[in-house]
Amino acid sequence: MTTDPLPLLILIGRPASGKSEIIEHLRGLQAGRRLADFGLGELSVLDDFPTLWSWMEEDHLLENRLGQPRLHTDARGFFLYAHLWDLLIERLAHDYLAASAELGPGAAAHSFILEFSRGSEHGGYQRALGRLDAATLARAALMYVDVTFEESLRKNRRRFNPARPGSILEHSLTDEKMTRLYREDDWPDLSRNDRRFLSLGGRRIPYVVFENQDDVTTGKPEALDRRLRERLSTLHACWHAAQADRAPKNPAP
After folding, report:
1. DSSP code at position 44
2. Of the candidates 39, 45, 204, 230, the residue with the CA atom closest to the CA atom of residue 134
3. Mean pLDDT, residues 176-204 taken together
4. What tens digit of pLDDT does each residue of 128-160 get?
5. For residue 111, which of 22, 40, 50, 172 is within the disulfide window of CB 3.0 to 4.6 Å?
């Protein structure tokens, strides 16, 4: 594998599908192996959950401490306005472009991961990915972690730690939220026409599917490593081939 890393990996899938565990595995690798075997450099991870969690905490404080109207969510924790889902994506894209701009020419090989979940109830992945600008899409490759809704629901229930409700790895949604927001997933429709590329913003974005119905992200580090290495190696090769195709060709003499 070339030592030129993927600049941006968009990591998507249902809640509790295994995305956070994949990131933890990648973070735990030695830098040289992560680059040589997985095609990723020094990692920066951008996840919309911390923003979402902070909005919910702010609403609790506004209502219960200040006696003011909630800004983001209703009393059951659902967004008041559909455009807040768009704002989460705009925030991720903004933070990514700002962070990548800060990397100097002498910086070590670097990769960013953008992680999020979207269900069809609030526009799905089609709407979310459609918010990304051309500069972001030009650098992006994508991996979808595939589990059924039933498996997502099972793992969401299992991972809940009431002592750490705001934790990336241990937060959980109610069954009501899971069913309303994430039962329907538009990934099959989005990826139906091409097994290698998504058509987004006039660009062809390479992607792979990480099958995780057998839950290799829980207590199976060797199986996780093998599958992740194979999937990211495939994605890395596809991304570099696409970059080569986009490069301007020198005219024949």
Report:
1. E
2. 204
3. 92
4. 999 999 889 999 999 999 999 999 999 988 875
5. 40
Asked whether 1 and 105 are in contact (CB, 8 A), the reply is no
Phi-psi region of 107 (alpha: psi -120 to 50; beta: other; left: phi over 0): beta
Domain ranges in the chain? 8-51+88-246
What are the b/e assignments for 90-114, b being 16+ CB within 10 Å? eebbebbeeebeeeeeeeeebbbbb
89-124 tens-digit pLDDT:
999 999 999 999 888 765 668 999 999 999 998 899
Question: How far is Cα 214 from Cα 231, in angstroms, rounded to an integer?
Answer: 16
Q: What is the pTM of this model?
A: 0.91
Nearest residue to 88 (alpha-carbon basis) of 110, 108, 117, 112:
117
The bridge status of strand 8-13 relative to strand 42-47 is unpaired
Name which of 200, 223, 199, 219 is nearest 210 in CA terms.
223
**CATH topology assigned to domain 8-51+88-246:** Rossmann fold (3.40.50)
b (16+ CB within 10 A) / e for 212-249: beebbbeeeeeebbebbeebbebbbebbbebeeeeeee
Say if residue 195's pLDDT is above 60. Answer: yes
Radius of gyration of the chain (CA): 19
